[in-house]
Amino acid sequence: MSSRFFRGGGDSSTESSSDEEELYTTEEEEEEEEQEEQESSELEDDDDEEESSSDDEAGPKKGAGRFLVDVASDSDDSEAELVTKVKSAKDKRFDELEAIITAIQNSQKINDWGTIANEFDKLSRQAVKLQDGSKAPKSYIKCIAELEDYMNETLAKQKVTPKKMNATNARGLNAVKQKIKKTTKEYQAQVDAFRKDGDAFMESSDEDDELPLPKSTKLKLQDAVIPEAAEDEEKGFSIVDKRGKAIPFSPESIQKHLRAIIESRGRKGTDRNEQIKIMEELNRVAETPYLKIRVLQTLISARFDLGSGGSVMPLEQWKAAEKELGALLTLLEANKDHIVIETAEEWEDDDKVPVLGPGDKYITVPGSVVSYIERLDDELTRSLQNIDPHTPEYIERLTDETSLYNTILRGLLYYETIQKDSSLDVPQESLNRIVQRRLDHIYFKPAQVVKILEENSWKQVPDEVDSAIAPRGLLGDAGKLIHSLCNYLFNKSEGIIRARAMLCQIYFLALHDEYYKARDMMLMSHLQENIPNFDVATQILYNRTLVQVGLCAFRKGLVYDAQNTLQDICGSGRQKELLAQGVMMQRFSQVSPEQERLEKQRQLPFHMHINLELLECVYLTCSMLLEIPLLAQIGSSPDIKKRVISKTYRRMLEYHERQIFTGPPENTRDHVMQASKALAAGEWKKAIHFIHNIKIWDLMPSTEDIKAMLAKQIQEEGLRTYLFTYAPFYDTLAIETLSTMFELEPAKVSAVVSKMISHEELAAALDQVTETVIFRKGVELSRLQSLALALSDKASALIETNERTLEVRTQGSANAFSRKDGRQGGQRTGGQRTGRGGARTGGTGQRQAGGTQFTGGALGAAVRG
């Protein structure tokens, strides 16, 4: 006896072999598999019937005997064995397909288009798994045709009797409408065959439409993998899909492959590297210019997908994309009847390629060359941001900017060429964007570097090709090149691009020591009023331009202008953040990961940085030359004590003065503070020594000229400081003495003293006959008198504040007016109060140390009396 679940010998061998064929299917016999499964299923059905009849005749068995079969019964009992049917993966997929079709039919009965749309997506995915070559399962084709008919009926009813559908149904109906249209087009031949004769289509076998093969010939995997070409035979392999079938690459199938790749972009689980390999193979077999253009566009976009999601694009992929973009531009230059333009319509027919018709001049392909160039530029910037700038790798990566700049130039020339034809609707914005990209690569570079970059780029352009925006003749003059590019954007663009063009030109002018032109352009642009309304990148460019103008003013010896320009950036203490050269880590700040990521994305590559140490040195030196004379002028006077030019410099100076012991200077700040201390004490030579010992000056062009300018400025400010400090101790002072003391020419000393007198900074007169300075003497105010004057001013201010508060509370009543009139009538009858810092003319008034006079307050009038 043997178990019913095990096979014996004899007649059951055929059933055993059929089960094994169901369990172990091979791709070498796919055509025979379905026939064998049908035969085995028929045998199993017969076995089931015979088994049931034999069981009924014999009666039910009990106990262990019901699981045993007599071995002796060779003919009848062997047929009564139970058969366990194991479904293949293919059968399971067909069952799932039928289940989805049933769900769609049930949803049609209740007019649930939302569910139909969802189920149709599942149906399409399942049909792809069961697709044999270009043919879909017949039940799938039948479902498509019936669903299309039902959809058309629903739409017709909506037109005849408009009935408002809910939002879910309306969205589902529209989605199904679009998907049905696309799917029907893809399987048009099968759908037409079903509509012609549905019964014949469903009964016909799959092999009817294919070429018959001899029975002795079996299609093996090697034959499917190597379908063509001798070189493929030499390799012994080709690209296969997930099912192990060879992917046929031919010019006719290129567009279908491209559409499938485009639709799968962005989906979860998509293998991007595999897509790139497929498109590289498509690019090899593409023959017509149109197909090559389409393949190159899709291939470049797929490479850019590798750098999405915050990751940096791999270097080899970037170089490949740059090379393919160059090949695309070469193809467009060679085939002038093919135009890639943003406004072109999409070609829908995947079975044929567009050709020039009668009267047509161009075949337009939808796409944007400038978008590829911008993405290539952005990926290079991201790569440079993530490389340590102090390694050779950064320098090596930076060399790719030359090839990128050549691509930008070729793209600009291409857009200029197609814009000449008025029949093409070329967006002006595209041309403006690519001009701006070219400008972004040269505005911060010295003229010599720009000249070399331009020469290398124009060498790779044919001699007969020229640009109308920036002609080839501007190679030797970087200033004219920048001016022509910016002037074009001034006339053709507006908004952010126009503002950025103006800032780029101002930056370039300031970099090349044309201060007055840069200053006038900055003032005439009025960007300082509108810059908060622009994007962050433009605000960063504005800050960089402002700093560059300040440095230019310093190189020109305009200390006051330089300090005033740099005040906003350097006085804030956030130079790194404002110039996008680093992220400031502030204490107790709550920065979200998204904000931190955006901050890092805004950072400029290292080769575009402005040296922050040099910037700080310039700012502190300018502040020293302005603040030290001012501190000497203030003395003990309360009138000017509130005036501060640089709070940052004052804090540093106060901190330095509080130190009990100060050693030799070690950094830039220490040198400037020591020089300030020496200048305040009248030791101008020592101050020059400290300033000249700062090594950062070597980074500036014409270092010796800068140091000579600084020495001259320190001599002049030392003279002013000396006069403010020691004027009360002199009656007269010879010009020659001052000239010898500060090693200045007598004419220069006379000019400095005259300027101080005219600005009412010094109470003195200049005798040109004897060449002496005659100081006006007066009664010095004691400390008590100075404090009394300060108290008087504060009391007057407090009274005025109280009266204004009372007027507001009484809301303009008659009493308030009478009080106001009475106060105005007898307020200052005891002597007119002119306020602090009033006129300092006349020799009868009293002098304060430093030449400052007090002319306000009742107590001041009493002291003068």
Q: Helix fraction?
A: 55-70%
Rg estimate, integer Å: 45 Å
Derived from helix and strand composition plus strand pairing, the structural class reads: mainly alpha
Share of residues in strands: under 5%
Determine the number of helices (DSSP H or I, runs of at least 4 residues). 38
How far the N terminus sits from the C terminus, by CA atoms, comes to 144 Å
Largest beta sheet: strand ordering: 5-7-6
Low-confidence stretches: 1-33, 36-84, 207-237, 814-865
Mean pLDDT across the residues is 77
Number of strands: 9
| Shape verdict | elongated
Q: Could you give a short account of the major beta sheet? A: 3 strands, antiparallel
SSE layout and pairing:
Layout: E1 2-3, H1 13-23, H2 30-58, E2 68-69, H3 76-79, H4 89-109, H5 113-130, H6 138-160, H7 167-186, H8 188-196, H9 198-203, H10 221-225, H11 230-235, H12 254-264, H13 272-285, H14 289-305, H15 315-334, E3 338-341, E4 363-366, H16 369-385, H17 392-398, H18 400-419, H19 428-440, H20 447-458, H21 478-492, H22 496-511, H23 515-525, H24 527-530, H25 536-555, H26 559-570, H27 575-578, H28 593-602, H29 612-634, H30 647-658, H31 668-680, H32 684-692, H33 703-726, E5 732-734, H34 735-742, H35 746-758, E6 764-767, E7 772-775, H36 783-810, H37 814-826, E8 847-848, E9 852-853, H38 858-864
Region (Disordered): 1-81, 810-865
Subunit structure: Component of the eukaryotic translation initiation factor 3 (eIF-3) complex.
Family: Belongs to the eIF-3 subunit C family.
Descriptive overview:
- Residues 1-81, 810-865 are annotated as: Disordered.
- InterPro entries: EIF3C (IPR027516), EIF3C_N_dom (IPR008905), EIF3CL_C (IPR058999), PCI_dom (IPR000717), WH-like_DNA-bd_sf (IPR036388), WH_DNA-bd_sf (IPR036390).
- Residues 1-16 have a biased composition (Low complexity).
- Keywords: Cytoplasm, Initiation factor, Protein biosynthesis.
- Belongs to the eIF-3 subunit C family.
- The structure is a single chain.
- With 865 residues, the chain is mainly α.
- Among the domains are: 2-79, no CATH class; 89-209, no CATH class; 240-410, no CATH class; 612-729, no CATH class; 783-827 and 838-864, no CATH class.
- Helix content is 61%, strand content 3%.
- The protein has 38 helices and 9 strands.
- The chain has a 3-stranded antiparallel beta sheet with strand order 5-7-6. The chain has a two-stranded antiparallel ribbon with strand order 1-2. It has a two-stranded parallel ribbon with strand order 3-4.
- β8 and β9 form a beta hairpin.
- α18 (400-419) runs antiparallel to α19, α29 runs parallel beside α33 and α36 (783-810) packs antiparallel against α37 (814-826).
- It is elongated, with a radius of gyration of 45 Å.
